[in-house]
Amino acid sequence: MPFKSQAQQAYFNANRGKLEAQGVNVDEWNAASEGKTLPQRAGKPKKAKPKRSSAGYVPLTDLGM
Prior knowledge:
mainly alpha
């Protein structure tokens, strides 16, 4: 899995021992990200807009119009 940002890459390489003790192979991440242009920081994920409910919808034919 490639890194999402330069900040994530720096964190993984700085904390290599701790992450490898948890089962993360940092060398695999480095190889997957090799040659890619990474942003300095990853942006926040966009929130999904709530869907409009049709619970209060009444067709005009039911109102006698």
